[in-house]
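Please produce the structure of this protein holding WQD.
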Amino acid sequence: MVILVTGGAGYIGSHTCLELLRAGHQVIVVDNLCNSSREAVNRVEKLAGKSIIFYQADVTDEAALAAIFAQHTNIDGIIHFAGLKAVGESVVKPQQYYYNNIVGTLVLSKMMAQFGIKNIVFSSSATVYGENEIPFVETMSLGVPTNPYGQTKLMSEQILKDMAVAHQEWSVVLLRYFNPVGAHESGQIGEAPQGIPNNLMPFISQVAAGRLEKLNIFGNDYPTPDGTCIRDYIHVCDLAEGHVRALEKLADKSGVHVYNLGTGQGTSVMQLLTAFERVNQLHVPYTIAPRRAGDIAAFYADASKAERELGWRAVRDIEAMCRDTWRWQTMNSHGYDQ
Ligand code: NAD
Ligand code: WQD
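Below is the modeled complex.
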């Protein structure tokens, strides 16, 4: 298939592009590089030994997108990763988040209708469940996201669901990711946050590298066995494989298809930290800090639907996630900007 990947230079997008190329698909990337580097795409091409057609363009720019779609009349489907994703920043810059993430989804929907593209896979998030019973199951009623970022995921899901009603031949796949971590085992591609990382794993890794002084553990008085929050960390390569599987299984199967992509296993902040130290044989200084606003004590996926229907499940464990994160960190101490 010919797949147009928005946000394909980003963290999850780059790993998915590699997996798509490996599976024999052709890849066209559209990315404005607002949170990524062209070098990521170069490295994916080298790892796969295949080339990618790359456009530096903004998915909210309708004219630019229309020109790309007009140029490539053989696109079979879209994977839509492009979006802003920092929860805290979205509270400070709601207009920017709503505009970028919602208009991006609207413009792509318009392009699909205009150019007769029937397949889209959308990067959603476990954040759409809000505070809910665990494990999170696809059939649950969705919660109320506590920040604009989460709202953009909920709204984008709704836009695509409504589009699928209006265009009954469309296949809309909503993939709800849990906590993606890790990097490709080559150490060539990985997560390259700009500035101080917001997420736990890149923060741990930068403390281990001596770029940050210590980890702040946000709260150790949650109702969990060790008092720290529990999440479902999933290796980014498993996640990437999940996208390819979803696309291959569901292309041209009309309707809306929703899947959790997680491991189904909960790991606490303290467990992740100690696993990282043990696997990589190093010490990560930490301190207990106050709870972070908006954090939920524990959530993890019921990942059985993806296994049952797509034949996909996450196979890489916490040790692999820690090892691969550290390999990427040590081989690329400043991300792609060496
Ligand atoms: P990322 O920032 O590394 O990748 C997003 C990519 O989209 C970047 O390359 C960025 O330059 C590009 N982009 C952003 N706005 C754009 C625009 N208007 N036009 C063109 N390109 C644009 O983030 P990621 O972690 O790879 O996340 C990919 C997707 O998955 C995002 O939609 C994110 O919300 C979603 N998601 C991420 C996580 C996570 O924890 N990483 C969890 C759940 C969902
Ligand atoms: C994990 C745990 C923190 C940093 C976020 C988004 C979610 C999804 C994935 C996009 C929490 C603790 C963290 C630190 C810490 N993204 N922590 N010290 O919050 O589960 O999910 O990313 O869709 O929508 O909300 O991930 O990695 O930020 O935090 O103690 O310096 O680590 O309190 O318990 P989170 P995270």
